[in-house]
Write a structure and sequence with these properties.
CATH topology of the largest domain: Beta-Lactamase
Shape: globular
CATH class of the largest domain: Alpha Beta
Number of strands: 8
Order of helices and strands: HHHEEHHEEEHHHEEEH
CATH superfamily of the largest domain: GAF domain
Structural class: alpha+beta
């Protein structure tokens, strides 16, 4: 199963960064080069990717992906509506922006636009984030119905860094603050070197269907920059919500 998941992660990353070589894929995915190389051989044999032109072997996806993508619905409609909003958000903040959706008790990354800055955060499409330790997750939890929230917060929560909120009561207090200010902040709670500011995208019934976030190295998330990121991502989430109605 792990080999299959790694192969799918490699395919997603090739699609997002093509053309790309094995070394960069290994670095971005934090996998051994040998693992990435095996996945690339499998995908090439199956016809999902092909070598790009050039002396150094770099990979691009083939048109086979279009046949599968054209049969998909649901999240693709959300991604299509979100892309112009994400572009505006990236332009206004100068940072990497994410679109995530709640799925099986996690936040799953379904779209990403990266900053031009040389020092940046990086995450593969399809990656799952913990609800309680990510800005995207906390933004969604802040608008989750009380009964569902009680089921999610029955026990102590996993700790990822020194700043992860693991006590359910402390997290509830944090969610109250998020509802009041309109956006959530992750100050190194999932990865100590990564910060994020996020806002939930709400349906017409007020249910969280997605979350938008600004993602950056923790050193660029300061008391001076945080309010601007919060205002930008909150406005973007409202714009996307209006597009989905």
């Amino acid at each position: 199963m792990r080999n299959v998941l790694n192969t799918l992660r490699v395919l997603e990353e090739v699609a997002a960064r093509q053309p790309i070589g094995v070394g960069e894929l290994a670095r971005v995915l934090e996998l051994p080069k040998s693992t990435v190389q095996r996945a690339l051989v499998t995908l090439d044999t199956a016809g999902w990717i092909r070598p790009a032109t050039g002396e150094v072997t770099r990979w691009v996806i083939t048109t086979k992906a279009l046949a599968v993508g054209g049969s998909a619905g649901g999240d693709l409609g959300l991604r299509g509506a979100a892309l112009p909003v994400l572009e505006d958000l990236r332009r206004s903040t100068g940072e990497t922006v994410h679109l995530t959706i709640p799925e099986n008790g996690k936040m799953v990354l379904i779209e990403r636009l990266e900053t031009d800055k040389p020092v940046r955060t990086s995450m593969a499409l399809g990656h799952a984030l913990p609800l309680h330790a990510s800005a995207n997750g906390k933004a969604v939890l802040a608008h989750t119905p009380p009964e569902s929230l009680r089921r999610l917060l029955r026990d102590d929560l996993p700790r990822y860094t020194d700043t992860t909120i693991t006590d359910p009561d402390a997290l509830r207090a944090e969610l109250n603050r998020i509802r009041a200010q309109g956006f959530a902040v992750n100050r190194g709670e999932w990865r100590s070197d990564v910060g994020a500011v996020a806002a939930a995208v709400l349906s017409s019934e007020g249910q969280p269907v997605a979350s938008l976030s600004v993602n950056l190295p923790i050193g660029r998330l300061t008391p001076d920059t945080e309010p601007g990121f919060g205002a930008a991502v909150t406005a973007a989430a409202r714009t996307l919500a209006a597009r989905l109605i």
